[in-house]
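wait is this the right file?? whatever heres the structure
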């Protein structure tokens, strides 16, 4: 059953994505530039590395939603609740795909904001121009299989929000450490 994707639904997705992006950037700028690249320990990422990971994931998602697709035979939002719950469970720890690991080296907040904005702009254009009910065939999401473009873009926002919360946790911990 193919769902009808209304203009209102697209506008809501765009508004939600933009709000998530704004909140992520605000969390990034909570960091003083001097500690942005500082990790709590050797087993954790710094705020800068977390931002690099988010940029890479947004670029990856943009690539996937622009890949091979086919019409969807199910509710285009079927997996939204599960995807949101996965990203909201801060006790669950995942392992990043190799391709999404942070780029090495020093990263300024400004450099990360620019890269994040560029990656987000590509997805915002996708929201406006692509048929979001189509299934992305270039990737299988662990445990769920193929997702619609809508689900993948929603996942991008959920993922960004998860890492926003992690940024705030890192910032708070670094403040206590100094």
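ok assuming it is, sequence goes like this
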């Amino acid at each position: 059953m193919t769902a009808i994707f209304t203009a209102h639904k697209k506008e809501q997705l765009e508004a939600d994505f933009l709000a998530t992006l704004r909140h992520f950037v605000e969390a990034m700028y909570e960091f003083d530039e001097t500690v942005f690249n500082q990790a709590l320990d050797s087993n954790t990422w710094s705020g800068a590395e977390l931002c690099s990971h988010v940029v890479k994931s947004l670029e990856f998602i943009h690539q996937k939603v622009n890949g091979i697709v086919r019409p969807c035979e199910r509710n285009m939002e079927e997996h939204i609740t599960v995807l949101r719950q996965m990203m909201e469970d801060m006790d669950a720890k995942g392992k990043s795909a190799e391709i999404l690991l942070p780029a090495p080296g020093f990263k300024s907040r400004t450099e990360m904001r620019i890269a994040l904005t560029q990656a987000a702009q590509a997805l915002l254009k996708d929201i406006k121009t692509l048929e979001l009910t189509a299934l992305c065939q270039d990737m299988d999401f662990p445990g769920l299989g193929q997702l619609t473009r809508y689900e993948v873009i929603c996942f991008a926002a959920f993922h960004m929000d998860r890492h926003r919360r992690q940024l705030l946790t890192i910032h708070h911990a670094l403040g206590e450490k100094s």
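The CA atoms of residues 55 and 106 lie 15 Å apart. so i think its the right one actually
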